[in-house]
Every structure is written in C-alpha cells, then in structure tokens.
Amino acid sequence: MKAFIFDMDGVIIDSEPLHFDVDMETMEHLGFKVTQDDLEKYVGMTNPAMWRLIRVEYGMEQTVEEIISYQLRRKIEELRARDFAPIAGVLSLLAELKQRNLPIALASSSPRIFIEEVLSKFDITDYFASIVSGEEVPSGKPAPDVYLEAARQLGVLPADCVVLEDSRNGVIAAKEAGMRCIGYINIHSGDQDLSRADWIVKAIKDIPLSQL
C-alpha cells in the first residue's frame, strides 16, 4: 500500500440517515412519497446521477437542477444543525496513516460544498492530500473515475491504493479502478452488498493495516 483513499458518507461521517431523511423530505416536498428502502440502491451515487434516475422513474416535472437546489440547501442546514462526530476509529486511523507517511485522499460522491462542510466541521481537512468529488469527474460511482482521479492526483498507481467504502456502488467503483477495497459494514447505510471487497470489517478499528 502506497496510499489510502477514504469514501466520506457512511465512512468518515455517519451521514446516510441525514441523506435518507432529506431525500425523502425532498420527494415529499415535490409531491411524492418514498421510503428508505426505495433509496438504498442509490447510496454511493452522485446527486445528479441519482435524481436523473428518480426523475424518470416517478415522472417528475422539476429539473434535476431544481431538485438538487432544494435538497442540497436542506442537507447543509441539517449538517450544521445536527450534533455529528467522526465515526468511531476514524481519527485514530487518520493519525496512524499520517504517522506512516502514507498519502491520504478522499473520493466522495457528495458535492464539494458538502465535503468541505464535513471536513471543516470535524477539523480534518489537512489530513487529505487530495479531495475529489464524484461531480468533478465524467462518471460517478459505480464508475471508477473518482478513484482513478484521486490516485492520479496523489501520483500513485491504482494498484497501490487501498480504499475504505461502505456502499455497493463504492466498492464496485474501487474494484473497477483496480484498487484493493475494505468494506465497512455501516448499519445506517442500509442493506449494502460489500461482497466484492477484499476485506469486510464491522468497525474501523478492525482494519488490518499491518496486512496492507
């Protein structure tokens, strides 16, 4: 391992409940009723990709841009209002990776403004040598683009990177990028198939750094 790449939602911050809540609220605001089960298949995808699919499925009149404008404003409001802390073990993992002089990147499907809000809230921005949003590459997860761009920015071959993910779409993206992947079982991320991951852990502290 020559670099470590984090997903963010469900890995650094336990934000999937926020996303589910606001996405369901957004649908209700627009006149549609959905459940968390309806939304779990979109975990790990970018907002534009998710809403393009939902808009077609439900025959929504609003544009993707109009939907995201409401949704993102509400998500940032909720992020600032709720009492979030980093997921248990994340700060220790970041510190150990830094101690080992391993470059660290973040590759998230969230828009950059949300990423920056999270990292600023936890005061951990300086740990990351590269930050890439899935909205800044041609295709979001499960395509590998966001992970390949993170590796490029770090100057490391994809095969030398290890990724930490909590979603099916994210694991697929990491493996399609040619990287090794740790699947973190986060019960708040819904029913996620992490079977393609090289390792699966139930706690961040269980990540086998010595084997990487």
From TrEMBL:
Answer yes or no on keyword Transmembrane helix. no
In the UniProt record, the signal sequence range is none
**Keyword Hydrolase among UniProt keywords:** yes
Reported cofactor(s): Mg(2+)
Looking up SUPFAM superfamilies in the UniProt record yields:
HAD-like
Q: Name one GO molecular function term.
A: metal ion binding
- Specify one Pfam family: HAD_2
Q: Which family does it belong to?
A: Belongs to the HAD-like hydrolase superfamily. CbbY/CbbZ/Gph/YieH family.
Q: Which NCBIfam families match?
A: HAD-SF-IA-v3
Instruction: Give the protein name, as stated in the record.
Output: Phosphatase
Tell me the organism.
Paenibacillus sp. BIHB 4019
